[in-house]
Design brief:
Layout lengths: L15 E5 L11 E4 L2 E5 L2 H9 L11 E11 L5 E6 L2 H6 L13 H9 L12 H11 L5 E4 L24 H17 L6 E7 L8 E8 L10 H12 L2 H5 L1 E10 L4 E5 L1 H5 L3 H11 L11 H15 L6 E2 L3 E7 L25 H5 L2 E6 L4 E2 L15 H18 L3
Parallel strand pairs: 6-10
Antiparallel strand pairs: 1-2, 1-5, 2-3, 3-7, 4-5, 4-7, 8-9, 8-12, 9-10, 11-14, 12-13
GO biological process, one term: phosphatidylinositol phosphate biosynthetic process
Protein name: Kinase
Pfam families: IPK
């Protein structure tokens, strides 16, 4: 797999043409969708080292590692860029694509190419808003729009069922922004024959119909041991000027389904950096508010899962999860028995929703991601050995739990 040549035209039936991952809410590196249950990202040796040797107790809180795949850039006659993955037999056994007609696990690019037939190079056109809309609608059933409250304002992304674009600037700009930047960087630095290695990871939101995602940058320190003095100073300043210093956690991105409008409300990392501790708390409330009422049914299972993670992290001696993120995920599609009307005078009041341990746990998840700067004793990329657990990360988790408990108690 490593070092193999890009596939010849006659062998292209085995290649997977990657599409942007439409549910990327944070980070700076583009995540790509490999199949319905698998995403991929550029391989960083330190992150690979973590996934290959992580403690078994942590595996329930991280995406499943599915292997490595070779990826190369492809440019058509019009100059449009795509990424093609060349799976090995090992990769296929981990993340097998279904080629059945109409199967949603077949990538959108796959459908475009085979529908056009052999020799039709123009089938591999750049990502249009219509295609992205189709991809998003395959990921989320129903008529959905993303309503960004972001600094990035692009052209309309999603259309309604009739093909209309009722709102200008309706887009998922962060993931699309990362994707465009990544393609441009690859194009400017490397030729088409250059092979890049990507990590294959579990798509942790694939089981959700309307994935509501909160991306939290954890810890009081964000720079890795290998950071330059300039980068170190930059990250320290970001922490000091945000809730990273005061709470050990800051918001890096968010999308939350609004049941009253059928939109996703989005926030980006620039929004998160400006928040005060009180603003952080209010945004956490907003993440749990579906436009009609506060999802109090989710608070207990999220808190329990965070407490379980905290217990695991406290036992991980020498680990430092610098610049890693924590995802809190739940399904915006609410069971009818949990729906409650909104009291206009108390928009964030605690509702009469019941919360049971069994019924709601499957609809929430907590996952650690992004380990490019994670260090631990015995790491192949280890620069510094630390003693004891990551107290900055623990500080962030404890504050996050405390804030959610206060919300649950109506404070």
């Amino acid at each position: 797999m490593v070092g193999q040549s890009p596939l010849e035209p006659g062998e292209s039936r085995t290649a997977v043409l990657l599409e942007p991952f439409v549910h990327q809410v944070g980070g700076h590196m583009s995540m790509m969708k490999y199949d319905e249950h698998t995403v991929c990202k550029p391989l960083v040796s330190q992150e690979l080292s973590f996934y290959e040797s992580q403690p078994s107790a942590m595996r329930q809180f991280t995406p499943q590692y599915k292997g490595v795949v070779s990826v190369h850039l492809k440019k058509d006659s019009l100059g449009n860029l795509t990424l093609m993955a060349s799976p090995s037999l090992q990769t296929e056994s981990c993340a097998r694509l279904s080629n059945a007609v109409g199967d949603s696990s077949v990538t959108l690019w796959h459908k475009c190419k085979w529908a056009a037939g052999a020799g039709s190079e123009h089938a591999l056109v750049k990502w249009s808003h219509t295609q992205l809309a189709k991809s998003f609608k395959e990921s989320c059933p129903g008529k959905l729009l993303l309503r960004p409250d972001l600094q990035y304002r692009t052209d309309p992304l999603l259309e309604d069922a009739n093909g209309n674009q009722p709102e200008r600037n309706s887009s998922n700009p962060w993931g699309l922004h990362c994707h465009r930047q990544h393609l441009n960087r690859m194009s400017s630095k490397h030729n088409e024959n250059k092979l890049h290695q990507f990590l294959l990871l579990e798509n942790v939101v694939s089981k959700y119909n309307y994935p509501c995602i909160l991306d939290l940058k954890m810890g009081t320190r964000q720079h890795g041991d290998d950071a330059s003095e300039e980068k170190k100073a930059r990250h320290i300043k970001k922490c000091e000027q945000s809730t990273s210093a005061s709470l050990g956690v800051r918001i890096c991105g968010m999308q939350v389904y609004q049941a009253d409008t059928g939109h996703f409300l989005c926030k980006d990392k620039y929004y998160g950096r400006k928040l005060s501790p009180e603003g952080f708390k209010q945004t956490l409330r907003q993440f749990l508010c579906n436009g009609n009422h506060l999802r109090t049914d989710l608070l207990e299972p999220i808190i329990l899962r965070l407490k379980a993670l905290l217990s695991v992290i406290r036992k991980q001696s020498s680990y430092r999860f610098y610049s890693s993120s924590l995802l809190i995920i739940y399904d915006g599609q609410e069971h009818k028995e949990n729906a409650a009307p909104l009291d206009n005078h108390l928009p964030f009041q605690k509702t009469n929703c019941t919360s049971s341990h069994g019924a709601h746990h499957s609809r929430v998840d907590v996952r650690m991601i992004d380990f490019a700067h994670t260090t631990f004793k015995g790491s192949k990329c280890n620069h510094t050995t630390y003693d004891g657990p990551d107290h900055g990360y623990i500080f962030g988790l404890e504050n996050l739990i405390k804030i959610l408990q206060n919300i649950s108690e109506g404070k």
